[in-house]
Each structure stands twice: as structure tokens, then as C-alpha cells.
Backbone:
């Protein structure tokens, strides 16, 4: 009895020792990431936060000016409008991308392996193209004289449209390439989520007589919840941070109708001799993006898929 | 060594290797002594003073000119080496600000005139007067000298000026519709009428800057009507008046009459639509002359250049353009200001023959800021007969005014207001009232009143 207790004690000591050893190894492996994160993320964030409260320029000793930079940014109608434009873009881009990718992922799932592989590669290509190139390509498409879009309209006897100079179309004109560029990525994420759902669930549901719609509502959607959250959050933050496509196609015009916050801040970075406005604006955007993500996570709890 | 110790040591070593590899990968400074990549401002081997000089990429001829004369300077000055670096325009600000933040900013930079005064306020540029012969500044034309001065000091030395807007027009299209190709429009009304006559299927009568370019191209029209949208002391908006009402209405009429495309066919600086015959007239800057001569030589003789039409049709002796261009600036923290200024004096302020070669290379699409250089150029056979140069030199540049140096935000607010008239159908009076309010709000929020560095000189 005593021997057994001693052996048990010894065994748990060994386990504890191994666990501590594993923990040390894990911490050692984390050290490089921690140092890099500190150097390239935490320290710059801390410095930016500090400098946002000063009249920071590269040639004068910064002086503390409290919330002045934040007051200027928040009072700026261009910044406020740019944030509004960004949220409009979220509502234009995310739902369309979401629904289209969900449907297309189902289509790919039903394809043969060979065709499916080809389609997957094809739809992924736009993502590896830089936003600048995507913007340039769509600028050609939207060209007033000789652009593909207007040439198509001319075939049907419709006169040329000012796709990027008319405030009626401008926002849609920058949303379309963003949807196109992200579509492949979202579809592949959806497909990965779909393929992860055990086939048994569907077979069991079929045997119980569940319709395709009920199978989607009661099996697919609940099992895809975490994928949906990820796609939603990354889609929203991506749309709120849209920059290169807008820069290339409209440069924020006409009349600020497509000016996004990031483009607005980059313009300030380029034009201002001091950096206070840009840094404060960037921090406000970080707060908006972070808060939005936090709220989404709070509303839609991510947890393990149902068994 | 026990297995446990071995694992610990291996893990630590692996972590160290990962860290070092990543840090090495992140580092971009691979310079070694003597490999020609010495840090700016430090002394190269043999005690040479190294002066970094940044410039945006130029066309082949101008690039060769900068290389040639920088090399000449380096060869004729034993103790100094100017390191010329071409920095792409779209990466300029990022690279410059990164260099400024770590103290490696170029000692000499190729800088746009309009950005200089407010940067001087921040200490970004040093006055050249302590390092350059004062006589060198006397060679500058009066209105250009004014551009580079704040108070009694000069904070840059001009390389060239480029006036805009000028009216470029196709003489062959004028003849086609029975208009006299030697009598381009002089008033806004004439411009609209002629543009209407020249418009036909597949061709617009006129090209004007599109939404992305309105904010800066209108500096020329603002100069033309006599004042910028903000008062000289930057204390209040000055847009809600008859001259701005007329300018906004003129712009609106161009679109209402459908003589300009609803969406710009190119960037404002591009002469392509005119050269390809997709428009019959177009506003552009003097730089377009170089494009015409280089890229569209076959139709260059069919293109006329005229003073931009004015509201009342009087173009002689009137301001019709803004003067853009570039100058060389000396960094406020330059480690070798004397040597850097010596190079500036040599390249752009010294022997007029050097700058004459520059303008020859640019095919006279850029214009000299110095009288001595123009005197030399005018002696060249054929140059004084150049009709483009003659008009610009005699009728445009002497009366042109500088681009504004207030925050570009003001120009963006202006551009947005004008676009709402064109794109959203906002009535001119409403747009001007909102523009006035927006500028005044900006002045209040930014505490901008009386901050004009040239007013406070």
C-alpha cells in the first residue's frame, strides 16, 4: 500500500517535473515572437500613443498638447465623412462577398476533384494581385471613352456613364473590385468550413427526411459559425481599411464620396509637415476597428462546433 | 548531458537562432565600410564629406544631366562627394519621413515650392543665405525670388518653374470647323462657344482636370480671379463673392453644355487625349510641351499653345497661371551645410551654361528662374522663334503667381465643394456658402488665423 502510494507520488512528481520542463521549452520558443512583437508592434504602438498627445514633428522637440490632435481629427468633416464612407463600403462589400462565396463554395464542393482544384486556383488569383494593380485594371474598365463597361453599354445603345466621376456610381465602382479581389479567399475559407462538417450529419438528417434547406439551417450554418465569425471580422476590418483600390480608381472623389479613412490619413501623412493629425487619426481608426471586432465577438460567441 | 538538459539547450539555441535570423532579415542596413554605402552625413574613407541628394525620377535626358553634373562636381571637389539618389515619387514621403525620424534625411532634396514655407516653420529646411553668395539670389526673377523667400532669408534655390494652366488646342480641328487656328479663345464665354463647335461624335471640345485634380489645378484659376479662397492672413474664407460665383458657374456650364467629358479622360497632366484627337482643346501645364515633342512629335505642329482664357477676355498683362516647379533645399539638420550649399551653388546657381543645358534637355518645356540663363538661351539660334516658349515667357510667367502654401486641406475642401456642383447638382450659391463655412470651421478648429509664415515675416 505504502509502496503503491510512494510510486504514485513519484510518478506525479515526474509528471510535474516534465510539465514544468515543457512549459520552459514553450516559453523559450515564444521568446523570439514576444521580442519581435514588442519591438515591431507594442513599442511603436506605445510611442504612437505618446506622440499623439504632442505636436510631433521630426525637427522640433515635441510639446505635450493634450487631446488637441484628437479634437482636430474628430472635428474634421472629411474624417467623419470618410468613416461613414468606410461603413457604407462594409455594407456593400461584406454581405455580397459573404453570400456569393457561401453559394460558390457549395458549388465547388459538388464539383469533381479535378475541376474543383482548377476553380479553386482560378478564384484565388485576384488575392495575390496587389490592390494597386486591381485598381489600375478597374480604372481601365471604368474608362469613359473605350472602357470595357461603357463599350458594352454602347452595344445596347446606352450612352457612356461616368462610373467614377458620378456620385451615384462612384462608391459601387470601388466596392466592385474589392468584392472581386476578396471573393476567392472568402470562398476557400467557406469551402474549408464546409468540408470540415462530417458527412454523417447530412446522411443522418437525410434519413430523418430533412429537406436541403433544413439541413443548411440546422447543420451547415451552426457548424460554420466560427468560420463565419472569422470571415465577417476580417471582411469588416478589410473594408474599413480599404485604401489602394480607392487611391487608384477615384482618389477619394467625386466630392469626397469615396474617401476612406486610411486614404485620408495617408494624404495627411504626405502633405502635413507635422505628424500629430495622422498619428491621432490612426489611433482613432485602431480604436474603431478594435471596438467593432470586440463587439462582434461579444455578440456572437465563438465556441466549439456542436457535436 | 541528460536528455532534459539536452532538450533545454536545444530549445534555447533554436529560439536564439530564430531570433537572430528574424532580426537579420528585418535589418536593411547591410553596408560595410568601403562598399560605397556609407551612412549619410558620415565621413567616407579618405575624410570625404558625403552629401546625400535625393530627387524624384526624371526623364532620361534630365536624369543624365543630373548624373553628369553631380559627377563633374565630385571630380572637381576633392573633399566632397554628393551621392545622388533617385527616390520614386510614390515612395518619396514614406522614405523621407523615415529618414527624418532616424536622422538620416538627405542633406539636399528636390522639393516642390508650395511645401517649403510651412516646412520651414517646422525647421525642416535651413536658410541658404549663411552659406551662399547673396549675389546668386539677385539673378532670380522678382516673382520667383518671392517664392523662395521668407522674410529676408532664402530657403531654397529654384531649379525651374512650370506655369499652368495654359490652353493647348488642335489647330487642325479649328480649321475643320471653320475657326481661325491663330485666334484661340480669350474669354470663358468664347471658350465654351468654341468648345461647343468643336464637339462631335467621339470628340469633346475641351478637356478639364477631373475630380482627383481639381483641388490643385484650380490654383491657376484662383490666381486668375485675383485671390485664393482664404484671406492672406488666413483668418477667414474669401469665397462667397462674385468672382468665385463666376468661376463655379463657368465650370458648371462646361458640364451642362456637354463640351467636356463627364469623367476626365486622363490625369490632369497628361496631353494624351488631345494628342490622340479625343479632345480639341485642353488645359495643361508647360510640362505637356515636352510630352508633345517627345511622344507625339508627328502631331506637335498641329497643336497650338495659348494663354488660358480669362473671365473678361483680357489676357495681356494679367495673371492667368500658377507657378509650380522644384527647388533644391538644404535640410534643417544637415551635417555639412557649407558643402551642401556649395553643391547647390554649383549646380543650379553658378555657371548659367549648366542650367542652359538642363533646359535644352527638357526641350524648353521647363522654364528658368534665372535671368542670366534665359539671356544665354535666347542667344541660341531658333529658340527665340519657338512660339510656345515666346508666349509662355512673355505673356504667362512674368504675371504668374505662386501656388498657395497653406494646408492642402483648404484646397481639398475647395475641390470637394466644386465637385458637389458638378457631380451632385448642388446649386452654386449653396456650394459656395458651404465652402465658406467649411473653410472658416477649418480655420477655427486648427487655430489657423494669422499663421501665414509669409505674413509674419
Residues:
Amino acid at each position: 500500500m505504502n509502496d503503491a502510494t510512494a510510486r504514485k507520488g513519484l510518478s506525479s512528481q515526474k509528471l510535474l517535473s516534465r510539465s514544468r520542463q515543457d512549459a520552459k521549452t514553450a516559453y523559450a520558443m515564444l521568446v523570439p515572437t514576444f521580442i519581435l512583437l514588442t519591438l515591431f508592434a507594442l513599442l511603436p504602438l506605445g510611442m504612437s500613443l505618446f506622440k499623439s498627445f504632442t505636436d510631433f514633428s521630426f525637427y522640433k522637440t515635441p510639446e505635450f498638447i493634450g487631446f488637441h490632435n484628437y479634437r482636430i481629427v474628430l472635428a474634421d468633416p472629411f474624417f467623419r465623412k470618410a468613416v461613414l464612407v468606410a461603413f457604407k463600403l462594409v455594407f456593400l462589400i461584406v454581405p455580397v462577398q459573404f453570400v456569393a462565396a457561401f453559394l460558390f463554395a457549395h458549388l465547388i464542393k459538388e464539383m469533381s476533384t479535378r475541376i474543383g482544384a482548377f476553380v479553386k486556383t482560378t478564384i484565388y488569383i485576384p488575392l495575390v494581385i496587389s490592390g494597386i494593380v486591381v485598381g489600375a485594371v478597374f480604372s481601365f474598365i471604368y474608362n469613359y471613352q473605350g472602357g470595357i463597361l461603357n463599350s458594352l453599354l454602347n452595344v445596347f445603345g446606352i450612352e457612356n456613364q461616368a462610373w467614377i466621376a458620378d456620385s451615384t456610381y462612384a462608391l459601387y465602382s470601388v466596392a466592385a473590385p474589392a468584392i472581386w479581389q476578396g471573393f476567392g479567399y472568402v470562398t476557400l475559407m467557406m469551402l474549408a468550413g464546409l468540408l470540415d462538417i462530417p458527412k454523417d450529419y447530412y446522411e443522418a438528417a437525410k434519413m430523418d427526411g430533412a429537406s436541403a434547406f433544413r439541413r443548411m439551417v440546422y447543420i451547415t450554418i451552426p457548424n460554420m459559425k466560427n468560420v463565419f465569425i472569422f470571415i465577417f471580422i476580417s471582411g469588416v476590418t478589410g473594408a474599413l481599411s480599404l485604401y489602394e483600390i480607392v487611391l487608384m480608381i477615384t482618389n477619394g472623389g467625386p466630392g469626397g464620396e469615396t474617401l476612406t479613412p486610411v486614404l485620408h490619413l495617408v494624404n495627411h501623412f504626405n502633405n502635413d509637415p507635422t505628424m500629430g493629425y495622422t498619428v491621432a487619426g490612426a489611433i482613432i481608426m485602431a480604436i474603431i476597428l478594435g471596438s467593432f471586432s470586440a463587439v462582434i465577438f461579444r455578440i456572437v460567441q465563438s465556441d466549439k462546433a456542436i457535436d | 548531458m541528460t536528455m532534459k538538459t539536452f532538450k533545454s539547450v536545444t530549445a534555447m539555441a533554436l529560439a536564439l537562432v530564430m531570433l537572430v535570423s528574424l532580426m537579420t532579415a528585418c535589418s536593411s542596413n547591410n553596408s560595410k565600410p568601403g562598399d560605397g554605402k556609407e551612412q549619410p552625413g558620415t565621413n567616407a574613407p579618405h575624410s570625404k564629406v558625403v552629401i546625400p541628394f535625393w530627387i524624384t525620377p526624371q526623364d532620361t535626358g534630365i536624369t543624365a544631366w543630373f548624373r553628369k553634373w553631380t559627377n563633374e562636381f565630385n571630380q572637381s571637389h576633392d573633399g566632397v562627394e554628393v551621392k545622388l539618389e533617385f527616390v520614386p515619387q510614390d515612395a518619396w514621403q514614406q522614405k523621407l519621413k523615415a529618414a527624418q525620424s532616424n536622422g538620416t534625411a538627405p542633406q539636399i532634396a528636390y522639393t516642390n515650392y508650395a511645401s517649403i514655407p510651412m516646412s520651414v516653420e517646422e525647421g525642416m529646411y535651413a536658410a541658404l543665405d549663411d552659406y551662399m553668395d547673396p549675389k546668386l539670389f539677385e539673378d532670380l526673377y522678382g516673382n520667383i525670388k518671392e517664392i523662395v523667400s521668407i522674410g529676408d532669408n532664402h530657403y531654397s534655390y529654384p531649379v525651374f518653374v512650370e506655369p499652368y494652366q495654359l490652353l493647348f488646342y488642335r489647330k487642325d480641328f479649328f480649321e475643320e470647323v471653320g475657326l481661325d487656328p491663330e485666334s484661340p479663345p480669350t474669354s470663358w464665354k468664347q471658350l465654351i462657344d468654341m468648345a461647343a463647335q468643336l464637339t462631335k461624335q467621339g470628340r469633346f471640345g475641351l478637356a478639364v482636370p477631373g475630380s482627383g485634380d481639381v483641388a490643385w489645378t484650380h490654383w491657376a484659376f484662383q490666381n486668375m480671379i485675383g485671390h485664393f479662397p482664404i484671406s492672406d492672413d488666413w483668418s477667414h474664407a474669401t469665397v462667397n463673392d462674385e468672382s468665385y460665383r463666376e468661376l463655379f458657374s463657368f465650370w458648371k456650364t462646361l458640364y451642362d453644355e456637354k463640351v467636356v467629358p463627364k469623367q476626365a479622360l486622363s490625369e490632369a497632366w497628361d496631353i494624351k487625349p488631345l494628342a490622340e484627337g479625343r479632345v480639341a482643346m485642353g488645359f495643361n501645364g508647360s510640362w505637356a510641351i515636352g510630352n508633345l515633342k517627345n511622344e507625339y512629335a508627328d502631331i506637335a505642329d498641329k497643336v497650338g499653345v495659348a494663354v488660358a482664357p480669362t473671365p473678361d477676355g483680357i489676357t495681356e498683362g494679367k495673371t492667368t497661371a500658377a507657378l509650380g516647379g522644384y527647388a533644391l533645399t538644404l535640410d534643417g539638420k544637415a551635417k555639412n551645410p557649407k558643402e551642401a550649399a556649395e553643391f547647390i551653388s554649383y549646380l543650379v546657381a553658378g555657371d548659367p551654361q549648366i542650367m542652359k543645358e538642363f533646359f535644352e534637355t527638357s526641350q524648353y518645356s521647363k522654364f528658368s528662374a534665372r535671368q542670366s540663363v534665359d539671356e544665354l538661351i535666347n542667344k541660341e539660334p531658333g529658340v527665340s522663334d519657338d512660339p510656345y516658349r515666346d508666349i509662355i515667357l512673355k505673356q504667362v510667367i512674368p504675371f504668374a503667381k505662386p501656388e498657395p502654401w497653406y494646408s492642402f486641406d483648404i484646397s481639398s475642401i475647395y475641390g470637394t465643394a466644386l465637385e458637389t456642383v458638378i457631380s451632385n447638382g448642388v446649386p452654386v450659391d449653396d456650394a459656395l456658402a458651404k465652402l465658406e463655412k467649411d473653410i472658416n470651421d477649418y480655420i477655427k478648429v486648427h487655430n489657423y488665423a494669422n499663421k501665414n509664415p509669409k505674413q509674419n515675416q
